Amino acid sequence: MKSLIFKKDGLHRLSASYIPERLPSREEHQLEIFNTVIGFLEGRLPLKAIVLNGPSGSGKTVTVKKASEQVLKYCGQRNIKLEYRHLNTRFASSDFTLSQMIALSLMPNIPGRGYSSRELLFTVFDYLEKTGRSFLLVLDDFDSFLSGVRSRFFTDLLKISEEYEERVKLILILIGIDDVSSKVKDSWATSFFWRIGRIFKPYSAEEISVILKDRVELSFNENTVDDSLIYLMGRLTERFGYGSARYGIELLLASGLNASYEGSARVSSEHVREAQYRIESVISPADLKTVFSQDPGMRRLVEMLIRIFESCEEPFVGFKTLEEHGVRTRDSGVVEKLKRLHFEGLLDYNPSRREIALIGMPLRLLRQAFD
User: Fold this and answer.
1) DSSP state, 216?
2) Which backbone phi and psi does 54 adopt, to 5 degrees?
3) pLDDT digits 0-9 by tens, 255-295
4) What predicted TM-score, i.e. pTM, was given to this entire model?
5) CATH code 3.40.50.300 for 27-195
6) Hey, which CATH number is domain 285-370, 1.10.150.20, 1.10.10.60, 1.10.10.10, 2.40.50.100?
7) DSSP 3-state assignment of 172?
8) Is residue 4 within 8 Å of residue 264, measured between CB atoms?
């Protein structure tokens, strides 16, 4: 049965493994990584390990994967022999298992036993030398690996690569939330780090909105998700997902699935509220009852807001509409209550745009606060 919400393969385009054609707000990062890797390959820059760090969901992994795609295409056009592997080191519990992961990614038939960590690395370099290939190796979550084990992996890798320096080019990209250089024990090794000039920062609501709009066009049927809902998800991501694109895309996917399960032809504000509540319960009916007990006037205000949003299809309601329904947005007492509800996670109060959105929990649960 054809989905009313999602395009064919739409769910795949909302998965963590999907690499989109466009990376909004990360194009310059991508270009810098590409130019740096090519500079290493062509000998225009001294061979170093590129270090990237930034908050989870700030686009590090997808940007590196996209830049690596460009590098492979460039090398193919110029007949440059290059092996490329992107490995997540969170699955490695020791220097040996990480070395084994790298060796097996290049040589699947290598025996699993009988080698030390260093011997596996020598075997990797022997393979690269014999095949005449350079090696672009990306180690993701490398800060977590260095924090979790007593490791000499990076030091050993650098020393071995120096022995093969004239025959094999090893280009490392080390990704972490924290700065990898602070985790490496040997101070001399830090001279091999190269930092790109552009920092990976959390996405703003506007930047997330652009990312989500692209994903909507790729994944959803036409006219199923309004731009105002996309902006609401951007606001929620900035506030509760700390600017993580991963959070925003998960929120978009869950909202679409809610609409699809209901057989709806459109994603609504209620679908988004339901998705947010399932992903992260910021406020509950019990929490709201506590707020009401502290301030009876808050109960009356929320009752008014429920009636307004029940009669409104738009996710945001302007201050003018609130005034028309008896919510005095110029009254300092009301403003303080709106700010309190924003703080509690029930409202997205946006005075710069003179509007609010009901968030935090679906209406079906919100009504329980009045039981």
Assistant:
1) H
2) 165, 170
3) 999 999 999 999 999 999 999 999 988 999 999 999 999 99
4) 0.91
5) yes
6) 1.10.10.10
7) strand
8) yes
